[in-house]
Amino acid sequence: RRSSDLVDLAAAWRTDKYLRRLEAMMLVADQKHMLTLTGSGDVLEPQNSVMAIGSGGGFAYAAALALTKNGDLPAEEIAKKAMEIAAEMCVYTNDSFIVEKISSDSSE
Q1: For residues 12 and 6, is the Cβ–Cβ distance under 8 A?
Q2: pLDDT tens for residues 71-86?
Q3: How far is it, in rounded angstroms, from Cα 70 to Cα 54?
Q4: How far is CA 54 from CA 22, 57, 60, in A?
Q5: Secondary structure of 8-33 in HEC code, one letter for each residue
Q6: Which of 18, 52, 55, 71 fits as disulfide partner to 92, beta carbons 3.0 to 4.6 Å?
Q7: Distance CA 55, CA 49 (A)
């Protein structure tokens, strides 16, 4: 059901008078799925278990991918370290970020 909700959101984004001109991306995730919603309304699944967007997204993506392949860190630590690396490399990425955890409760 959640995937179809995202597809509905993507369709609305594409057809809305104001949203269709919005050049943005959104990462959407739950305990089982990770998806990227693009400003053109595309819904993309990641090739790996890593996603990143924004000006420093490429740096963060590369760092997170390397950390997942060469270590045994929890997801929160991978995200923090990848963002720290991106902030060091990209002048448009700051080093002040908030990590929000997804609850492991399966109350649906």
Answers
A1: no
A2: 899 989 999 999 999 9
A3: 24
A4: 14, 5, 9
A5: HHHHHHHHCCCHHHCCCEEEEECCCC
A6: 55
A7: 20
Distance CA 71, CA 52 (A): 19
Alpha-carbon span 61 to 19, nearest angstrom? 27
Helix, coil or strand: residue 65: helix
Q: How far is CA 76 from CA 24, 41, 44, 92, 107, in A?
A: 24, 28, 22, 22, 22
Please answer whether residues 90 and 56 qualify as being in contact, where contact means their C-beta atoms are separated by less than 8 angstroms. Answer: yes
Non-local CB neighbours of 87 within 8 Å, separated by 6+ positions: 56, 93, 94, 95
Beta strands in the chain (DSSP E): 25-29, 34-38, 43-44
Amino acid at 18: Y
Q: pLDDT category, 1, cuts 50, 70, 90?
A: low
Asked whether 6 and 35 are in contact (CB, 8 A), the reply is yes
